[in-house]
Design brief:
By secondary structure, this protein is α+β, with helices and mostly antiparallel strands. The protein is built from seven helices and eleven strands. It has a domain of about 140 residues: Leucyl/phenylalanyl-tRNA-protein transferase, C-terminal domain (Aminopeptidase), CATH 3.40.630.70. A hairpin with an 8-residue loop joins strand 3 and strand 4.
Length: about 220
């Protein structure tokens, strides 16, 4: 089945269930705020190399962390008790994105100038959040992502100190657990995220969570 090509002028997507086996759904379009919000409301997200065409993905299985089920290992719990950990939201969204970009620069990053500008605009409009962890007063790590309704879609993490991204994720999950946030969407599975409680859910389960979590935005494509 050919991959769908988006119309630059029309803000629309094909049915997410038409994605390829690896999750690739469409190419092209742009990263304007309205298109990004439509994408996330339907479980679609951009992931592409800087300078190349935008690729839009929607994996059939989703890897999620449920905030109340975040797993903290015995060693991690001991580590957090040993240090003074402070979690801050939106300390400096742009700086957090740049640190995430720098983390992956050597291996090849998908966070280019276009992505920084687009997600910076999402942040200005209240749809993107950064989370930073401080350890004994020093910046240890952080993450950023998109928030819509009762859903959080994680994008990337960074560490400046040992366990920095872990303490940021744990602290953020504990904050989210006090609110009606249904899940943290990790998009793709990693061993690291699985050890912290990440689990696969089926597309049907995920689609229902989106429908309930973003009721005003989720409409069939």
């Amino acid at each position: 089945m050919p991959v769908f090509r988006l119309n630059q002028e029309e803000i629309s997507f094909p049915n997410p269930e038409l994605a390829e086996e690896d999750g690739l759904l469409a190419v092209g379009g742009d990263l304007r705020t309205e298109r990004l919000l439509l994408a996330y409301a339907h479980g679609i997200f951009p992931w592409f190399n800087p300078g190349e065409e935008i690729l839009w993905w929607c994996p059939r299985e989703r890897f999620l962390i449920f905030p109340k089920q975040i797993h903290v290992s015995r060693s991690m719990n001991k580590y957090m008790k040993k240090h003074e950990i402070r979690i801050v939201l939106n300390r400096d969204f742009g700086d957090t994105m740049r640190r995430c970009r720098a983390k992956w620069e050597k291996e090849g990053t998908w966070i280019g100038d276009e992505m920084e500008e687009a997600y910076g605009q999402l942040h200005q409009k209240g749809f993107a959040v950064s989370v930073e962890s401080f350890e004994d007063g020093a910046l240890a790590g952080g993450l950023y992502g998109v928030v819509m309704g009762q859903c959080f879609f994680g994008e990337s993490m960074f560490s400046e100190k040992e366990n920095g991204s872990k303490t940021a994720l744990i602290g953020f999950a504990r904050i989210l657990a006090r609110f009606p946030i249904r899940f943290i969407d990790c998009q793709f599975r990693t061993d690291h995220l699985e050890r912290m409680g990440g689990q696969y859910v089926s597309w049907e389960e995920y689609k229902e969570m989106l429908r309930e979590g973003i009721p005003g935005s989720f409409q069939p494509l």
